[in-house]
Amino acid sequence: VDEKQRNVLLTEQGYADAEEILDIDDLYDPREQWASYVLNAIKAKELFLRDVNYIVRSKEVLIVDEFTGRVMAGRRWSDGLHQAIEAKEGVQIQNETITLASISYQNFFLQFPKLCGMTGTAATERQEFESIYKLKVTVVPTNKPMIRKDDSDVVFRATSGKWRAAVVEISRMNKACRPVLVGTTSVEQSETLSEQLREAGIPHEVLNAKPENVEREAEIVAQSGRLGAVTIATNMAGRGTDIILGGNAEFMARLKLREMLMPRIVNPVDGVIVSKKQLPPRKTWKTNESLFPCELSEDTLSCIKDAVEVAVKEWGEKSLPELEAEERLSYSCEKGPTRDEVIATLRTAFMKIADEFKIYTEEEKKKVIATGGLHVVGTERHESRRIDNQLRGRSGRQGDPGSSRFFLSLEDNIFRIFGGDRIQGLMQAFRVEDLPIESKMLTRALDEAQRKVENYFFDIRKQLFEYDEVLNSQRDRVYAERRRALASGSLESLIVEYAELTMDDILEV
């Protein structure tokens, strides 16, 4: 089993045993597909782990994106691998998907005549942007000076020591009432740490790809910056998430409006297959009251109720599909101009709630800043420094104070697989599990391991791009002809043209 290449190979004895068990003469007989079945089964067992690479929801295997921590809806592994994992988990095995056309991300983006982008973490990938996309990376100065303190990594020999130290750090910050965001690399890790925090009596929230947590994502993120809040998250909260110190008043206002509006306008049966014996599951829009920083005044509550009544009168009682209702709620919580009177009425109610909540969240923000701001705890280096920087970047935004620290173990996947002999030597030299290892040589070795991983995956992407370049000219011509056919007023002239070209080719031969 090669974890680095994510591949498996059978030994000579393995071939013999497989052929004996299956009662066949040749595992690679082209008339059968036993070789791919066996290899995929081993991959599914050894390389693809539940709650790390995928989750099982509603008796379906769903891929978890390692970079975002989110479920990749509708995506399936190819070449029979997904079916092998479905067999492993004992769920219904679905048909293999048929790929009609494919293109690498690099060539897809290069199809556009102009290409640009903006991100806070592109500087570490400067070389790749320049070599593949011919794009220069320019670093724009921050709007306000960045005063976040990034503490040096704490490294332990064993994973158990790392987790214990992380719990101690979280407990220390929690006692000081500082909000803490803990980044983990998988659903499994977030669940393990959550169990340890429960045992330590530290209240916390978990944000990962599991459905019960995804549904509460807005609620969890809205309060991640409040006094004493502890949030454990996979990479879901590491990017595209603005954690506001003291709590996000506008997020909370949206949740309050949602709580009162949705039960009145959403059709509870829409899209649900209902049998005569079984009623559809009852959807609750109720938000935990502890989320809100204060009770709303009678005047504001009256404004919300009036706005909801206007919406019900115009849109109908329990008549909208959930997705459409969510979309209308989103419009109501935006600041752009609108001519829709119902949206405008709901927006007035939303702003009234937000203004009332802001009085308390602004006061709480001052207290959070006084404690030192958001503290980010990393529990493993990612394959890319960019992802680590995204996690650190949740803290110290817009000139706010904050800090970050990574707790690592020499048993972490990145160092175990890519660390080489130097890391293995250090593991043998340091035998105490609970004592942190501090060494300049170690820091250099860990940085080198991470750079090695980045270069390894960059080379893979570069090779894929070079292979895809060969197909790209042919792909462009096929797509050009397809566009001609779609845009043509008459297909007859095209068919005549193709017939003439075919006859010319035959005559040349």
TrEMBL record:
InterPro entries assigned to the protein according to its UniProt record, in alphabetical order: P-loop_NTPase, SecA, SecA_CS, SecA_DEAD, SecA_motor_DEAD, SecA_preprotein_X-link_dom, SecA_SF2_C, SecA_Wing/Scaffold
Catalysis performed (reactions): ATP + H2O + chloroplast-proteinSide 1 = ADP + phosphate + chloroplast-proteinSide 2
Cellular component per GO, a single term: membrane
MF term (GO), any: chloroplast protein-transporting ATPase activity
Pfam families, per database record: P-loop_SecA, SecA_PP_bind, SecA_SW
Top-level lineage group: Eukaryota
Listed CDD domains: SF2_C_secA
Keyword Nucleotide-binding among record annotations: yes
EC number(s) reported in the record: 7.4.2.4
UniProt membrane topology term: Peripheral membrane protein
Range of residues in the leader sequence: none
One biological process term in Gene Ontology: protein targeting
Gene3D superfamilies, per the entry: Helical scaffold and wing domains of SecA (1.10.3060.10), P-loop containing nucleotide triphosphate hydrolases (3.40.50.300), SecA, preprotein cross-linking domain (3.90.1440.10)
UniProt keyword Lipid biosynthesis, yes or no: no
Key words of the record: ATP-binding, Membrane, Nucleotide-binding, Protein transport, Translocase, Translocation, Transport
Residue ranges of domain SecA family profile in the record: 1-439
Main localisation: membrane
Location within or outside the cell: Membrane
Family: Belongs to the SecA family.
Name under which the protein is recorded: chloroplast protein-transporting ATPase
Upper classification of the organism: Eukaryota, Viridiplantae, Streptophyta, Embryophyta, Tracheophyta
